[in-house]
Structures are given as structure tokens and as C-alpha cells.
């Protein structure tokens, strides 16, 4: 067993690309003592899969949301359906939601309307909310300043904004999560931002099955290291149990001892995702 327990602040264990590897993944997750994982839905079409997984696996904290990439193909009644899932799971997050000007064909106006509607639900019920943002940090910050937000704060997953914005967003209530993806050479800006995150707002994620670490990951010595999985079409996928790699990467960047990091992240995870407010 691993020396420390792990908490994944943002992942997609339900992703259909992982299904053929389910037995091995389950064993690997047990071997490294993953305590809790926030599993994010992104569209009404996958909310049932998240719900089913949450009912089977007590480690799963479900999250239901309309991702900005799926705004244009969402059914008209998506918000009504979202409320149904949130009512069914009182401990669920609103997520994955947000704003994205990177995706081809984006419609920021429609994204904004959907994001504000989901943010309003989270604020009204004081639910955690998991936010995706790419190349839309200005509009996101304006929204967080001008709209009600949950009293418990909000979660910025896979933070990729500027170093300068970290303090401003933290003052608004942000928690920030990072994965081993930051170890790519081209992600120095992400590592610089990580260094500025207040320790009481730091979380760890995989975003599996996407956001793989660098190809030269073997240079790290990872207790209980598990292999990346490969989809039927040959695509490399991020193994959910590589949450331990994310912890090691963040420990290396920040200089925090791994035991101290594990305790810190557990405390932050419990405070934001689980504790009643």
C-alpha cells in the first residue's frame, strides 16, 4: 500500500475510453489508496454514467455540469435535467462548467449564459463548483466578481491562468488544482503559477483519461507506479491511478515534502468538497 492517501480533485473515471481497462484500473486504484475522487460529467449524455459510478463506488463524489465545449449541442432542457441530478445527489458538485475561447467554433455568449446559470445554482445551494477556463480569464474573473458565488468558494481545475491572477482569484475564493501535466517542458508558466498558490487553496488532480504527463515520466521514481492505458484505437490515456505521480510532481515543483503535501491536500479537499457550510 502507498504511504499516503490520495485525493483526486478532478477526473473522469466514467469515461467510456477507460471501460475496457476497468478491472485493472480498479486494482491499481486500490493499491495506492485513493480515498476520494471528484468525477465530472460534462454533458447530459454522460451524467447517467457519473451517477451510476457514484452509486457503486463510495470513493466517488459526483459532479454534473454542462462543459463549454458542449454548449452548442446541449438539449433545450439541459438545465432542468441538471437540477434533477443535483437533487438526486445532495453531495454533488456543479461541474465541469466554465468558459473557453480556445475551442474552435466557440460561442462565448452562449457559454456565458450557461456558466452563469450553473454558477447561480452552486451559489444558491452553496455547492462546490468545478470550473474549466481556457483563454477566457478576463470574462471569467468579471463573472466571478459580478455574480453570486458559493460561500465555500470555487474550484479552478487544471489552472492555466497567469501567475499575477492567482492572488486575485484566491481572494475571491478560488481553490486551484494541478496535475503532472505541469511537468511538460513547455508548461513553465503553469509551474510558476503553482508556486504562487496559497497552501490552504492547493488541490491535486489527474483529469484522466486526458492531460498525460510528459513521455519521459520514467525519470521519476514513483512508488506503486502504474502504466498508462491505451484505448482500442491506440490512443494513449492517462491512468486514474497516476494521481500519485501528480502528487510527486507538485511536491517537486513546490519543494513541499510529500507527507506534508498529502496532509495539506487532504485537509483542503475535505474543507472544500465535503464539509457542510
The number of E-state strands comes to: 10
Order of strands, main sheet, comes to: 1-2-3-4-5-6-7-8
Strand content: 15-25%
Helix content: 25-40%
Q: Termini, distance in Å?
A: 33 Å
Task: Give the biggest beta sheet.
Answer: 8 strands, parallel
CA-atom Rg in angstroms: 17 Å
Query: Which stretches of 5+ consecutive residues score pLDDT under 50?
Result: none
Mean pLDDT equals 94
Shape: globular
Number of helices: 9
User: What pattern of helices and strands is seen along the backbone?
Assistant: EHEHEHEHEHEHEHEEEHH
The helix-and-strand class reads alpha/beta
Write out key terms for the chains shown.
277 residues, alpha/beta, eight-stranded parallel sheet, two-stranded antiparallel sheet, 9 helices, 17% strand
Report on this structure.
This protein is an alpha/beta fold and 277 residues long. It has helices at 22-31, 44-56, 78-88, 108-125, 137-146, 165-172, 188-196, 243-254, 258-274; strands spanning 6-11, 34-40, 60-64, 93-100, 129-134, 154-156, 174-178, 202-204, 229-230, 236-237. It has an eight-stranded parallel beta sheet. Strands 9-10 form a two-stranded antiparallel sheet. The model has no long low-confidence stretch (mean pLDDT 94).
Topology, element by element:
Layout: E1 6-11, H1 22-31, E2 34-40, H2 44-56, E3 60-64, H3 78-88, E4 93-100, H4 108-125, E5 129-134, H5 137-146, E6 154-156, H6 165-172, E7 174-178, H7 188-196, E8 202-204, E9 229-230, E10 236-237, H8 243-254, H9 258-274
Parallel strand pairs: 1-2, 2-3, 3-4, 4-5, 5-6, 6-7, 7-8
Antiparallel strand pairs: 9-10
